[in-house]
Design brief:
Blueprint lengths: L2 E7 L3 H8 L11 E4 L5 H12 L10 E7 L7 H16 L5 E6 L6 E7 L9 H4 L6 H15 L16 H8 L4 H15 L3 H10 L3 E4 L7 E4 L7 E2 H4 L5 H16 L16 H4 L2 H24 L5 H54 L4 H6 L1 H17 L8 H46 L10
Antiparallel strand pairs: 1-3, 2-4, 3-5, 4-5, 6-7, 7-8
Helix pairs in contact: 1-2, 3-5, 12-16, 13-15, 13-16
Amino acid sequence: MAVTEIHPIRTTLAKAIAYITNPEKTENGLLTSSYVCSLDPQKSEEEFLDIRSLGSGRGDVLAQHIYQSFDGQEVTPEQAMKIGQELADKLLGGKYQYIIATHVDKKNIHNHIIFNNVSFTNYKTFEYMENRGKNSWKKLRNFSDEICREHGISVIENPNMNGKKCYYEWQQDQMGKSWKSKLRRVIDETIMESHNFDDFLEKIRAKKIECVYTPQNVIKIKFRMPGQEKFARGRTIGWYYDEPQIKKRIEQYQLLNTGVSGRDIHTKIIDTSRDVFQASKGLLNWAEIQNMKEASRLINFLSTHQIQSQNEFENKAVITYNERMAIVAKLNGLQSKIDDVFDCIRNIRKYKKYKPVYDEYRKSGGSPKYKKEHASAIENYENVVKELTEIYPDKKLPKLETLERQRAELMEQRKTLNEEYKRIVGELKEFEFARESLEQYFKNNDRSRNKGLLE
């Protein structure tokens, strides 16, 4: 999925451009491009400032910096670069100078786009023309999502729920070293082990995680790991870790594994035994008519699925549950294969990147001076060779094109299975709803002539 951010640059513009165009991050500069300006940091800064000097009311913002990150398993560097260019062209409309760089030095491939805050068409600022009310990030996100969907890349469906984090914390999160990352992992594991929310609270505390649950307060749930100074609100850790979402995730995981959601099903059947209906004949007649309409709709649902008895209902449910579990197993297997192929692609890219440096090191006869100057590259090369040798002991590396094609095929299979999985889960929910509704209807009316419908 793609994540986007935008923030202003007020100082050290050349340094910012130098950072994003760093050859070590951009395949020796191959994954960089510019529009109406130079790629050289000093020259591009001068070109930005030349345009800026022609305007008036410029404020203190020199440029804008866009960050666009992808799930590294979904895109190739070339795809990421293309998506980033399309985003820059769509957002900026060809009116602003920009430099784009795609970084591949981290697990998550990501784009950096730095563009002049002053347009070269009318010399007015981006802040004035596009960012009144500080809402440019919404347009950026919408454009990014739109372009990603066109390329078959997933997007975050609840983007407003995600809080921002500093670069250091983001980097640590990728390595799994931040306390938030560790806390998320423990919570995730506990959710998968829990039968309900009370069980979750008991299990998370048994893992020496302090958990304070106060449903009557605005801040309903917060956590603290051993050694952590302050409590962290569930929502601070991430929207998915707030109380309502934890409950929903437990319910979904139970449905996934057992076919039973563990939640109360709210049907459309009206309880006519309540005093308000017994006191009014007209209201009672209305409620009974509504219940009959709902029962008719549910019976039609059973007829559509050719279910005429309790046994047929149970058999159909069991078959559907088994289909769901088979698809889940296939999805897990596919994801494992996708991860393995991606690791191979990443390692081969590293191998090709650092091999020329290592070859020069060998030509130098193992020169200590050369090794000291290129210590990081040599170490990276030796580590990646070790990993690749374990995967390919015959030392015959596959072509990157072959691996990319294989990954694309696996991801297409995953996409198809995901659609089938969603269809089956929806069908299971319909069965659950229909069964509960009909049982409530029979109980509510207590008429023996209806009892035979599911017998």
